[in-house]
Amino acid sequence: MAENRDLLPRDELTLLTCAEMSKSDGFAIASGVPGRDLMERAGRAVAMAVMQRHGRRPVVLLCGPGNNGGDGFVAARHLRTAGWSVRLALFGSLEALKGDAAWAASTWTGAVEPWSAGLLDGAPLVVDAIFGAGLSRKIDGEIGTAIDLVNERKLTVVAVDVPSGLHGDTGEILGRAVEAETTVTFHRAKPGHYSVEGLRRCGYLRIVDICIPDGALATIDPKTWLNAPPLWTHLLRRGDIADHKYARGHLTILAGSHATGAARLAALAGRRVGAGLVTIGAFPSTLTALQAAEPGNLIVEIDDAAMFERLLGDERRNAVLIGPGSGVTDRTRGAALAALAARRRVVLDADAITVFASDPDLLFGSIDGPTVLTPHEGEFRRLFPDLAGKADKLGRARRAAARSGATILLKGPDTVIAAPDGRAVVNIHASPALATAGSGDVLAGLIGGLMAQELTPFAAASAAAWLHGECARLFGRPGLIAEDLPALLPQALQSLSSFN
Ligand SMILES: NC(=O)C1=CN([C@@H]2O[C@H](COP(=O)(O)OP(=O)(O)OC[C@H]3O[C@@H](n4cnc5c(N)ncnc54)[C@H](O)[C@@H]3O)[C@@H](O)[C@H]2O)[C@@H](O)CC1
Ligand SMILES: Nc1ncnc2c1ncn2[C@@H]1O[C@H](COP(=O)(O)OP(=O)(O)O)[C@@H](O)[C@H]1O
Ligand SMILES: [K+]
């Protein structure tokens, strides 16, 4: 198999933090593109979005004290030139505007009004140019009142860069945030756009090119991408004439004393995604039941961790999945430690995460090879109590990956996959229908199946998360259950041909 089966960074899928975006602007300006040209393009793009997405109607621009407000002044000018009825309110004073924003305000010949609730009478379309990348504290006072009123009245809002109140990096809501119909952002999206709060508030996201030179990304060395097939589709095996099943890897899954369905779902996913063989290590009392199930699974008896360790004496068992239905037992803990010590490609999910709750450092100290942990928030809390329950999912997953030495796949509508070296991918290719028992087992099986085919943990977890979401989307009607997902994998894999 190919030597480097890692994710391929793609410029077009890069996500930039607010600081990285500001660095890009700096690069553009240093390359001879004046800052006001960037603002002109940004504001014009906002006006275009308003006109393309909405029929002509009165529009009110709410402008803040920084450059986000500057974009608003430019948009107001273009809308008025196009014949729209435009009113503009500024939070703060014209005299206090600086730099490009002061220039933008000087090109606006209409009235600059103070904020008043009356501006929203008659349900105008609202352009939210209050705060963007410069949001630095909770929104309250007059601006808070204005945002609350816009939201309460359910006015149609086009937001500039981010809905004001949404933090572009962490996806946190600082006090409150605008609920937008469309958000127009510039150059590249930010992680916050794809956080749960961002997905709720951005509406349709339009990413506009404002002519920042290509070289800008190279100077930033970005570390975050939106998950999509161009990152990893080249790593998926195509059939080779010399193939044999061992060439496609052998995934071994540890089942428990009950809930054998979890291991079966994972095994189906592992085989469908291309592992050459999948073995289920069965507890003695479940042996017969598992042997009577899917005929393509190999079943071996595993009483305890020592037996599992002996099983790994076969070098061809290159990937191991422990956790789905494995049980929170010494057998599970011992098997996980044996797989890590044997430097196999290891996926630890569910019970194999929970079993280390009393001693996470034992787990972290044992991770020295390609490893993925796939916690949901509850399981994450057990291993990383100090990082749990806060905003900034991306930052939390990154810190967990650095601390544990494993790739962390932190689940949810905005699944984050973070590698120990600081790289991260955000996956929003999903469906709420995945919130069904057993769907996580399928995901774990997909990761294990791809690791068996020697994808790196980061690439395997990214590809698996996308394929998992694609299966749910392909189902395309209500009533999805976990069993449906593996059956849809062939179609999901086939759909990747359009990305080649
Ligand atoms: N140079 C660039 O990077 C470009 C930036 N552009 C726009 O510029 C924006 C960033 O501009 P800025 O850095 O000036 O930042 P913002 O315009 O987002 O806001 C900064 C101002 O808001 C104040 N502020 C922050 N949080 C507050 C709160 N909760 N309550 C009250 N005041 C608060 C700050 O003290 C500062 O005065 C981007 O979002 C984008 O819209 C575009 O013009 C394109 C080019
Ligand atoms: N609202 C949602 N939108 C998108 N994906 C979701 C949502 N809720 C759950 N999922 C996905 O479904 C899977 C559920 O996994 P998990 O909680 O481990 O379930 P189980 O253990 O029952 O199999 C995860 O991949 C998660 O990201
Ligand atoms: K905004």
UniProtKB/TrEMBL annotation:
The Swiss-Prot or TrEMBL record lists the needed cofactor(s) as: Mg(2+); K(+)
Specify the YjeF C-terminal domain's residue ranges. 228-496
The residues listed in the UniProt record as binding K(+), with positions renumbered to this chain, are 68, 128, 164
Q: Which InterPro entries match?
A: Carbohydrate_kinase_pred_CS, CARKD, Nnr, Ribokinase-like, YjeF_N_dom, YjeF_N_dom_sf
Q: How is the cofactor bound?
A: Binds 1 potassium ion per subunit.
Per UniProt, where does AMP bind? 411-415, 440
Reply yes or no: does the keyword tRNA processing apply. no
Please list the residues that bind (6S)-NADPHX.
Answer: 67-71, 132-138, 161, 262, 325, 376, 441
Its recorded reaction(s) are: (6R)-NADPHX = (6S)-NADPHX; (6R)-NADHX = (6S)-NADHX; (6S)-NADPHX + ADP = AMP + phosphate + NADPH + H(+); (6S)-NADHX + ADP = AMP + phosphate + NADH + H(+)
Task: Supply the NCBIfam families for this chain.
Answer: yjeF_cterm, yjeF_nterm
Q: Which family does it belong to?
A: In the N-terminal section; belongs to the NnrE/AIBP family. Belongs to the NnrD/CARKD family.
> Which HAMAP family does the record associate with it?
NADHX_dehydratase, NADHX_epimerase
Function, as annotated, reads: Bifunctional enzyme that catalyzes the epimerization of the S- and R-forms of NAD(P)HX and the dehydration of the S-form of NAD(P)HX at the expense of ADP, which is converted to AMP. This allows the repair of both epimers of NAD(P)HX, a damaged form of NAD(P)H that is a result of enzymatic or heat-dependent hydration.
Protein name as annotated: Bifunctional NAD(P)H-hydrate repair enzyme
**What is the name of the gene encoding this protein?**
nnrE
